[in-house]
Write a structure and sequence with these properties.
The protein is an alpha/beta fold. It has a domain at 4-77 and 231-288: Rossmann fold (3-Layer(aba) Sandwich), CATH 3.40.50.620. The protein is 38% helix and 16% strand. Helix 2 links the parallel strand 2 and strand 3. Helix 1 crosses helix 9, helix 3 packs across helix 6 (181-191) and helix 6 (181-191) packs across helix 7. The longest helix has 16 residues, at 17-32. It is globular. The N and C termini lie close together (11 Å). The mean pLDDT is 93. The structure holds glutamic acid. Residues 8-10, 42, 185, 199, 203 line the site of glutamic acid (GLU). This is Glutamyl-Q tRNA(Asp) synthetase.
Length: 289
């Protein structure tokens, strides 16, 4: 097996202490396996993309000593690959157009909730649009036992999600015409030959969907490792949306040592070289080969 890992930031703002943890964990895992590490700019969600943020993220990573082994992949340039995957799914009847507005879905969920049912998309348009115009395109999830997706996470342990009751048929193409993150990430990981996905635990909840979509597309399922998210002092997940402070590009060692401690790794950080060799050795003890 040739290890190929990746770090896939969304360019919605500069890197912060939380995204640095994901970058560092994926980088250390690749180094511990003597594998490749690729950066992918997830700019498929154009309304959330901030001009200049991708270049700033790449420059910060470089200052922190993390260099993509191949030219970064940009999701905004991969529309043809997403379209091809979409057409393959369409040919097998696995996807269908959905005419529900957000409002209609929210209303039906309120009713479902009131009946102690689930918060999954209720499948309103599964058997036709009932005269409504098509908005999004959804992937049918299986029913019964087949809906239970189980995977072993290298940090979090065995995870199971019932796609039918916990998620429902999910969107691959959004009502605004943009490709959904779930489709883009699965097609990108498959095309790049990614063998190991290391990222924040906020994405644990998306993983069963991605595993199922891999199965629908005949793509291999990579190994997964989800690192604990970094919370703000108020206890919220640190994110660009909650105004996390950008990293100081000129003081990489302090930020790296802090990110490593979040991962349970406490090593001297006198220089980037000594930091990365010590941190890689520690990571390898826990998660290597
Ligand atoms: N672009 C996603 C984010 O920044 C990460 C996606 C992934 O690693 O699969 O949260």
């Amino acid at each position: 097996m040739t290890y190929r890992g990746r770090f896939a930031p969304s360019p919605t703002g500069p890197l912060h202490a939380g995204s640095l943890v994901s970058a560092l964990a994926s980088f250390l895992d690749a180094r511990a396996h003597r594998g490749g590490w690729i950066v992918r700019i997830e700019d498929v969600d154009t309304p959330r993309t901030v001009a200049g943020a991708a270049d700033e993220i790449l420059a910060t990573l470089a200052h922190f000593g993390m260099h993509s082994d191949e030219p970064p992949v940009w999701q905004s340039e991969r529309g043809d690959a997403y379209q091809a995957a979409f057409e393959r799914l369409q040919a097998t009847g696995l996807i269908y157009p959905c005419g529900c507005t957000r409002r209609e879905i929210a209303d039906s969920l309120v009713h479902a909730h009131a009946r102690h049912a689930t918060l999954a998309y209720p499948g309103t348009c599964r058997n036709g649009l009932n005269g409504k115009p098509a908005r999004a395109w959804r992937l049918r999830v299986p029913e019964g036992d087949a809906a239970r997706i189980t995977f072993v996470d290298r940090w979090q342990g065995t995870q199971t999600q019932d796609l039918a009751t916990e998620v429902g048929d999910f969107a691959l193409k959004r009502a605004d015409g943009l490709w959904a993150y779930q489709l883009a990430v699965v097609v990108d990981d498959a095309d790049a030959g990614i063998t190991h996905v290391v990222r924040g635990a906020d994405l644990l909840d998306s993983t069963a969907r991605q595993v199922y979509l891999q199965q629908c597309l005949g793509a291999p399922t990579p190994a997964y490792l989800h690192v604990p998210v970094v919370n703000s002092e108020a206890g919220e997940k640190l994110s660009k949306q909650t105004g996390a402070a950008p990293l100081d590009r000129h003081a990489p060692l302090d930020a790296l040592a802090q990110a490593a401690r979040h991962l349970g790794i406490d090593v001297p950080a006198d220089s980037l070289d000594t930091f990365y060799s010590a941190a890689t050795a520690e990571w390898a003890k826990r998660f290597g080969r």
